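Late entry, written up from scratch paper. The run itself happened at the end of the previous shift, but nothing got recorded in the book at the time, so transcribing now.
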Amino acid sequence: MRALTAAEMREVDRLTTERHGISSLQLMETAGTRAANAFARSMRDAGLEPPREICVLCGKGNNGGDGFVVARHLRSAAANVFVVLFAGEEELRGDAATNFQRWREVGGEVVFVADEPGWESVAARVMGADVIIDAIFGTGFRGVAAGAMGRAIRDVNWKSKDAKAVSPALILAVDTPSGLPSDGEAGEEPILKAHHTVTFTAPKVGQLISRNAAAAGSLSVVSIGSPVALVEEIGKSVVRWIEPDEFADMPLVRKSDGHKGLYGNILIVAGSLGKSGAAVMSGSAALWSGAGLVTVATPDVVLPIVAGAHPEYMTEPLAATKDGTIARSNLGERFVAIAKGRTVIAIGPGLGQDEQTQEFVRSVVKTSELPVVLDADGLNAFTRRADELRERNSKFLAITPHPGEMARLLGGSVKDVEADRVKTATDAAKRWNAHVILKGSHTIVAAPDGRMLVNTTGNAGLSKGGSGDVLTGVLAAMTGQFKTDDWLQTLSLGVFLHGAAADVAGRGTDLSGIVASDVARSVPQARRELLRELQRRD
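Output as recorded:
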């Protein structure tokens, strides 16, 4: 789905009313209803069912109007729901004023806040709520939040991260976190930090790629009546969001007469003495992600460990250096024989940085005619010589750097990489004629032709060693199954499922305890949920 700027979103709303006869008041009602439903699920997932008290913070504009609708629809979800309005009733206009009256008509409580002393008089009560819903500023906000609203945002942010609080509030944002610019530019504090944002019709550019995008927390997009075709017509940004509909035309359901030969013959080159687990995780992730056949080629000194970890994949021994890494002597006929008949090569996890091993990696990348997924120590073999990535036989190379690895490839700093992640990834994809998967919060998948997508699945449970090794196996498996006809789509599916699997693994437990193997095992469930979502939309 294409991301929109604030102006494009206004135009989509206008044309929805003009062409399809859906009034702005009905759009607001639908938006608030859908947001309330999504927030109810968030509360259940957080173990807040029912919450004792919900506070909805409303501004005077349409975002506040959405907030009034949310409050009305959540009245039955909590013992008490109240609204804090940062305006006087006389300042409300149009649809926002209408929904304010509807809130009052059902007996809804409103606390009016005109200035900072007014906020201070209600702050303790707000901070004591189990759930705080932000509907102060919408996607059209410009400038810096000041006065009572700026103070409220700062206080809510403190509440959400206060380690001393017995039960920190769940912070939810309507359409966008207040203060977050919609068009991708950097914002100025204070910007509300939400755990979950429900936005309408399409993601906003700033929610995906700005340096403040993490303020949105987990991001959901709900339809309120505007056709997807209208979003595609109006949106001009190259930024696309990875969501289920991106994969609607892929054969995700297997035929009853399918066989292993249809789903890829994957070769994973990984592991070294002390890092055998990287090979195991990559290989097992490829299996759990649906590859038909998986072979792990690893130094002979660790092959018994790797082979014994998972009976479903095959192994190939590679001659080792004295330090237990892959020796250069494996180049030539030996590796050509191992690679024969494969669909894709994934190389890098846990290889180490021995000079012979790096020479081996560079040679494989240069000479192979198969699609190659290059990760981890495989990337380090090209430190400060990344332009050699162009000097290869294969048409298809995907690299999967985290910001530190990308900085080493470019000879710069992590700060440089993170300053503009989109430009970094898209420029590198064109420069090296490769698909670039720049990992991190909101992973970017960029193709050499300038197309790019942003992924928002996943959670803090991925901040563990081995997560990248699992992603390598997932990407190799997706390539084996869906080939390279549209490799950007195939790789994006792998990135999406990897993050979604982390979301599955994180349910009902603390994210600090998730390990990479949990994520790999959860890929089948993530894929099943993707299928269900696509079927539901049909």
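The domain at 6-241 is CATH 3.40.50.10260 (Rossmann fold).
(Scratch paper discarded after transcription.)
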